[in-house]
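User: tokens in, sequence out, please.
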């Protein structure tokens, strides 16, 4: 597995824009649209992820609504795998399984199609499908943890969670039972 060099990390890091006080005062929003528009940075990232995950024997990549779709779908295509969207409540048309998670105030819910990772979540060898979960950023980890639960609920196995950016000061990784990999850790 090829490690990401510090130079390559800097190329990606510099392409991400900080937006102060968005969507509300006190939040520094990590805007990855500038990275998507920077072909060198985007390619550096996807090359690294494709190299890291080529030997994981994955069956699917699952991306979290909505920015996880971008990274997940591109990576799935590179690795020759299927892509599964994990969506916010009410968006998926077929039978779904849902998982609630707490926000600062109230709840939110993510859903996945019941057969998204194969019948009963099994792959062609009748073993739980091996899934990589991906999103742009981990903050508290609530969305990702609910998504890991969903993958398990439909019979598949989340072998790793991958984030482009981790907000390190929130220590979200500590509460995960599944493996977590963050390309960039920021304070
Ligand atoms: P959490 O469930 O707290 O880990 O929040 C993760 C989700 O919220 C991800 O889908 C992120 O895209 C989004 N998010 C949370 N905080 C930020 C931030 N500071 N900048 C950009 N996106 C964020």
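Assistant: Sequence out:
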């Amino acid at each position: 597995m090829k490690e990401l060099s510090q130079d390559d990390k800097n190329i990606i890091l510099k392409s991400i824009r900080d937006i102060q006080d968005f969507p509300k005062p006190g939040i520094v929003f990590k805007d990855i649209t500038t990275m998507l528009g920077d072909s060198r940075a985007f390619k550096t990232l996807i090359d690294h992820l494709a190299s890291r995950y080529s030997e994981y024997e994955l069956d699917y990549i699952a991306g979290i609504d909505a920015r996880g779709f971008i990274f997940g779908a591109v990576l799935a295509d590179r690795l020759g795998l299927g892509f599964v969207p994990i969506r916010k409540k009410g968006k998926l048309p077929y039978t779904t399984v849902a998982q609630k998670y707490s926000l600062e105030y109230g709840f939110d819910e993510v859903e996945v199609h019941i057969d998204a990772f194969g019948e009963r979540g099994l792959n062609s060898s009748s073993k739980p499908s091996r899934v990589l979960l991906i999103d742009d950023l981990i903050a508290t980890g609530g969305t990702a943890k609910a998504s890991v639960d969903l993958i398990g609920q439909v019979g598949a196995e989340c072998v790793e969670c991958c984030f482009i950016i981790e907000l390190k000061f929130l220590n979200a990784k500590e509460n995960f039972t599944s493996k977590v990999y963050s390309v960039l850790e920021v304070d």
